[in-house]
Amino acid sequence: MANLMTTATRNRRLSILDGGWGAQTGPDLMYQQLEEGYDEGPENIALICTHQSWGHLRNIVGDQPVGGCLTWTYRQLMKAARDLAIVWAGYGVERGDTLVAFLPSCVEWALGFWIAAILELTFVPLDPMTLAVNSGREQEYPLELLKTSIVLVSNIRDAYNFDELYPDLKKSVRCRIVCHERIDFFFRGWINFEAQQTYRLRASNAGDKPHRLAPEDRAVADDRVAVVLFTPESSKHPPKGCPLTVHNIRTALVNQYILPRQRYLVTCPSSSSATLEAVMVSWKRGAAVVFPGASFSAQMTHSAIDLHHCTRLICDPLQLEELIKHPSRSQRDLDSLESLSVGGGGVRASLLAQGQFALQTQWASSFLTMAEGFGVLGWRSVSLTDRTLESVGTVMPGSLIKICSVIGRDFRVLSRGEEGRLHVGGDAIIHGYLSGTANEHFYQDPEGKRWFVTNYLATMDNDGLIRLITELKDSEPITIRTQ
Fold it and tell me: What is the distance between the alpha carbons of residues 288 and 279, in angstroms, rounded to a whole number?
């Protein structure tokens, strides 16, 4: 298989593609991704949380909020994150620490992400339902593998359950915060999100944006782990941690084309790769993120589209089915919605067509979601005629894809149109799971290119478009022999 990637660029018969040059290696920080969006217009809307009131956290934001629900501009979000970063640094939080958020989609989740970018922390969004009363210890995340310094939970019940599930972290975590319920000062070591120190430590003569780090401090930014996503957990297969570096994320974002002032309505879970990708693309381009609720509601989603003139909807297949059939759809004006993006493997083309018709969008498409790396597949053109309902797109710059045989040990690359296992690679893909768990999914070919073996059966057509056929069970064995 020597020089197969080079040969494949001239041979359209093989199911293998190299996306070419991606994000340039350099000193960019995660903070700079957010700064680009800020610079598009500090008074542009950055975040709308329809389920949180206009006065929520008004002491932290420092200004009179606008709108009937929580609606913050880039200037407000940046200033609030900067001020809280000062407070949390005062608690002893340091660069390289980890922020864990057991939160639904909300303003505190967004602030946690922005603060992590400012302080160069690792942001870890986790499913808040795993802290439910009867969750059981089998759903415990391996947080001992991370330098966890800050933990965010919604309420007192979740605080109790966190202490029970993670007793070894009680001493090492510097800052444990309850976000959506008032508690007494230092309740069992927990504090309120809206801490009094915010106002005392506020830098009154500072600008809205924090100062840049010195160039020598920025040289190692590429390899820093910016985010850890966990794969969906089950009783048989515990969650696997996926450490995404700054370079992984920048590669995934560099090719995304979004106009400022667009409004992204995101209904996927707060711990999903789909949500993370959507908010990062929006905030990098100066667009707005709209969270219609702490949990999914078709009625609240329809209402948010109508009231806030959302232009793009990001959801999963089950949510789309609810949006199509819910009676509130006919009671709302959805004319502002331009596009529909449905995340998940093997989304039916018929469901996308129904969604496009029911929600009156100009176009609809599905996309591949995986915690191991996003932005591998997509559309190189913004032209609607290049998109198909059956495909999740083609390889993007900085990435690699191929369809290989599922029989045998050498993963033979198949011809175009043949069904096989989807392999993805390139700079957007992580190097491996935390602690080496299930790392047989990762390998390096003789040319030094890194690959990840997905659980999807797929085909590649003559135009290089990928169609997902089905998702294999986690129990399917993977045996890799590098060629």
Answer: 8
Residue range 227-263, pLDDT digits in tens: 999 987 555 667 889 999 998 988 888 766 667 779 9
Q: Determine phi and psi for 143, rounding to 5 degrees.
A: -70, -15
Q: Check residue 209 and report its DSSP letter.
A: S
Token pair 């009094």 is at which residue? 196
The residues that bridge with 49 in the sheet, in sequence order, are: 70, 291
CA distance 263 to 288: 5
Distance CA 375, CA 384 (A): 19
* Amino acid occupying residue 375: G
Domains defined for the chain, CATH in brackets: 1-21+399-483 (2.30.38.10), 45-244 (3.40.50.980)
- Report d(CA 302, CA 188) in Å as an integer: 41
CA distance 436 to 164: 26
For the stretch 126-153, pLDDT in tens is 999 989 766 554 567 888 889 999 999 9
pLDDT tier at 24, thresholds 50, 70, 90: low
Beta-carbon count within 10 A of 48 CB: 24
The whole-angstrom separation of Cα 312 and Cα 315 is 10
* Residue 106 near residue 179 (C-beta atoms within 8 A): yes
Tokens of 468: 């997902």
Q: CB-based contacts of 174: which residues, under 8 Å, 6+ apart?
A: 91, 92, 93, 97, 149, 150
Please name the residues in contact with 106: beta carbons below 8 A apart, sequence gap of 6 or more.
Answer: 49, 51, 52, 179, 180, 270, 291, 294
* Beta-bridge partners for 100: 124, 151
User: Measured between alpha carbons, how far is 64 from 462 in angstroms, rounded to an integer?
Assistant: 56
Q: Which of 480, 477, 343 is nearest to 404 (CA)?
A: 480
